[in-house]
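Tutorial handout. Part one gives the primary structure; part two gives the three-dimensional structure as tokens.
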Amino acid sequence: MDSGALLLFLLLLCVCGRAGAQVSHLRLSVEEGLPAGTVVGDIRAALPRGTRAGGFFISESGDSHVFRDLEIHGDTGIISTAVVLDRESRDEYEFAAATLTGDVVRVTVAVEDVNDHSPVFPSEIVALAVSELSPPGTTFELEGARDQDVGSFGTQGYQIINSDMAEMFKVGARGGGGGLDLVLLGRLDRESRDFYNLTVEAFDGGVPRRTGRLQVHVNVSDENDNPPVFDRTEYRAAVRENAPRLTPVCRVQATDLDLGVNSLLTYEIVRRQGDPSEHFLIDESTGVIRVNKPLDREAQTFYELIVRARDGGTQPESSSTFVGIRVLDVNDNSPTINILFLSESGEPQVSEGAALEEYVARISASDPDLGEGNKVHVYLQGGEGKFLLKQTDEFLYAMCVAGELDREMVDLYELKVVALDFGEPPLQSETTVLVRVLDVNDNAPVFGQEHYEVHVPEDAAPGSSLVQVTARDKDEGFNSELRFSIPRSRHGHLVHIHPESGLVTSAAHLDREREAEVHFLVVAVDGGSPPQSSTATVTVYVEDVNDNKPVFDQPLYNASVVEHTAAGTCVLQVRALDSDGGDFGKVRYFLSDGFNKEDQRSLFHINPATGEICVDQDIDRDAGIVTYDLLVKAEDWGGLGTQAYVHIEVEDLNDNAPVFNPEKYVTSVSSHAMPGTEILNVIAADRDSGSYGEITYNIVPGDSSSFFSVDKSSGAVTLSSSLSSLGSASVKFSISAKDGDGRAATQPADVTVNIFHSSHVPALFQKWCYSFSVPEDAPVGSAVGTVQAVTPSNSVESPSYRISSGDPSHLFSVDPRTGLIYTSQTLDHETLPTVLLSVQAHASDSPVHSSTQVNVTIDDINDNSPVFPWSSNTISVSQNTLPGTVLFIAHAHDRDSGSNGKIQYSLKSEHDLFSIDPLLGMLSLNSDLSSETQILFKVKIVAQDEGSPSLTSTMTLTVEVDPSSAAEETLAFETLVYQVEISENAQRDTRVLQVRAHGGSHDRGPITASAPGFSYKLENLSGSSAFIIHPDSGWMFLSESLDYETTPSYHFSVRATAQGSKVEVSATATVVVKVLDENDNAPVFTRERYFFTVEEGPSPLGLVGTVKASDRDSGRNGHLSYILLSDGKHFRHTGVLVTTRPLDRERSDSHAFIVTVTDGVGDTAEARQASVLARVYLQDVNDNSPGFASSNATLVPEDAEVGSLVHQVIAMDPDEGENGQVMYSLIYGNESGLFLMEETGECISCISECYKYIEKRAS
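Part two.
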């Protein structure tokens, strides 16, 4: 439409619009490709019904595509094609047609598609580069084919028409974008196939369908997926050891299937696996291996290299191969000599006793070179023909002994071993060795003298040097080490030899009187195996000195002399012998006063030459002195003396008879008193002594004497049998007394015993012996235990109790009603540890009683504190005293027993200078005093017992530090504490110990006992001391007799003083003397005699009672053993008397025996003993039935009167007391009551006419 037409069309639209014309729409379609003139449609179809068009105005200009391609009839409105339409060029036409009426029709003509185009790819060929490592499923995007048709006529899909590619690839349309996806189905391997040619076909939906094709060239790109591969698995090469550096050895070669950089290889030697020393190197590009360092076949003959090939990939692959390089030998080494010596130590040595051809060493010769150079010739030089080489193998030689060796002649050989090879030129080596000849023990020791003689005084102390023997041994080492000994011989015990030095010393005191000459052998033994030895003889001539005291033939002489013996009468002769010879053996005797002076006051004198002791004055025993103890001393002419004691008894004459005082004795006793009851004690005295004064008591036989017994030694009268059969009576008997010579008292003792009868039987104790214990701190009134007596069944009275004996101090009381024993006074275990009470039980006022024993043990409590002998003491010590020196020994005593009496010591001091042994109480110095400015120390020593609670006591020890000891002059004892033991039997004047003090002066030299004013004295002696000290020598002597039981130890001080150049110096030391107990006390029984009561019975009753003795001695001397000297059949004794068999009172109502106690442990020679009489009375029990004495048949006259005695029966019962009283009664046969039986056994008639009874019975 031109611009004019368009303008007109627009004016029409405006007119129509103003007039209310309508606008309609018309859509028409027509297929493309139809021939021109094809009617498309009618515009009028779009006008309203009834509208007359009258022609149409078209909106398009004449040159528009509408008029070019369409034919529009302006009047009819018919639209037809002007040309063949092509949808792909224009698929739609639009225009507007207006009528004259103003109606407008908007017309759209759509060109419908037909399948007139095939799919077309953008390019015919596509090339792809795909990595061979691409995994299956990898998608490659390609441009899809384009089809100008639309709808179903457009591209519908793709396919690969190569059938052989179905397993490797597939194609598919990509959704949405019209693209094409190529999908990898399998794994690629470039090395197997590096190119794929695919034909991809695109097809549309027409029928028949149209297609288009695409050639896809797939190039498989290389990846580094193949390692290098060597052409060999192992390389072998050889190189001479003298090859210069960079000499080629071999070449390794590897290939890689990959391409490009991935196949570009480099080589390297793995040093960690071979050739760490880098003897070889490799060209990294060519693989050529060359020598890098000098080679030595002898050091290493073969090299194993690991060569690695690595490609050039980003992640490189590698592989390795083995390269073995053998180093070829050249003759560049001398032979090597190895010598192995066959001695135990491996040293170059051989025994001089080695046999010929004995191997000394093994020699191996080797040449590191190969080939002919390995043959070696070995030979030996030197050795004086004593050694040779013997070849044992191709390379082994043995060095052997070729001649006899003697170390004493030649002890060292210089040998040269030479080894020569056969190389070109030949090389040799040599080794020099020094072979030492070892010693064998082929030489015996040789003494300097075959015989030694020496003169020695017999007073030479043990340990004195006698003679020095010497010997030498030509061997060496252990073979020449000598040890000396003295073989066992008659004199061998007298001497001792130092095993190494050969010094012979005395081993014991020599005694010329026994052995004037001492002969013995000395043996020298070397240390060889087997040892060699030799001997020498030694003679020691013992020279006499006055070393023997006169010796009495016995230490104690006993003699007796009758009083008034005439003066001059010799009593006995003592004799002392002196083993010394000459004047040293002559002895003179004298009576001593104990102070080395003759006793001028004795009633006796002694012949100084013969030793006879004679009466010097009249002796009157009646004057009161009945024994004389003389001290006899015997001295030789050298001043040595000894002493003996003479005990002289003055014998008495039996000129006095025993006399009773009083002469008459009266006592009363119950008829129920038990046998063994002591009723009184008669006493007679005899003025004579000894056996003449020993009185023996006996009961004068008489009618009633059998009921009593008297102790023959003590005069104690006891019941020997029951008095119950006597009833109430008065019994008289006499007791005689005789001395040991049989002389009787002129008037015997008359004894009257009034027996009172009681119908009451005494209450009997439940036990015959009770045992209780009570602590010693129990307050007064504390209960101890209860005894109980049981009254007879027919008794209504309660017993009353009392303590009859055993408590002289009245420590205990008994409640008379209950039998409770309680304390009545304060107890003390240390004073009295046990008490044996006798308790009686009485009924009412009757004197009848029974007894029991009560053993009360008083238990110890810790009620005694330890006690020091002194509450304070003072010692003086030198300022130069060495640490560790014992300064003082503390000793405290605790009277308690057991752990309560055990004491431990400690210090309560602010000073660390001192320490104390907790058990021994030894105070020691801990540190040096020389730097101390303090000169006075107060040390508190605490003694604490082990009781609970423990008790303590304290002693203050003042330690004075002598300031002068640090000055120019000092004095000090050898030790600050002397401790010695001495027997309590030691005689007066016995030497105890010697103390020594020494000093020094810078200008005057040492201070000794010979210095001016030097003296010793004893200090701090409590009371009279048993010791004295010689002021010059320091020897302490016993000045009086000791008694361990009185004083078991002594503590005192000794002071030494000396006059120095300016001031007097002094020192003190402590002396502790412990007295050793001797068996000088005999055991003592607690009673003079013992009585016990025990019930008879069919079985042993066990414990009867205790017989106790004590001994003042201690330790083994105080250990007591008991024995029975009689009646051991029924009893045994260990301090406690027990029965061993059943006891029967009817056979024997009492047993008497002697108990002997002996002290000591197995030492019968020194044992002491004592004896005592013990009697055991048996109490009756009702263990016997009555027995009739005879048959009891009798005749009764028929006219016997009522009450007349028909018969008297008698039965006997061996028991006593009520147990033996027989009661009679009729059991059967008297049913009619004709007779009456009295308790006395009398049968009495009850009916006078006995025949009437008989007739009655007959009818």
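Part three, for discussion. The chain has a mean pLDDT of 82. The longest strand covers residues 1064-1076.
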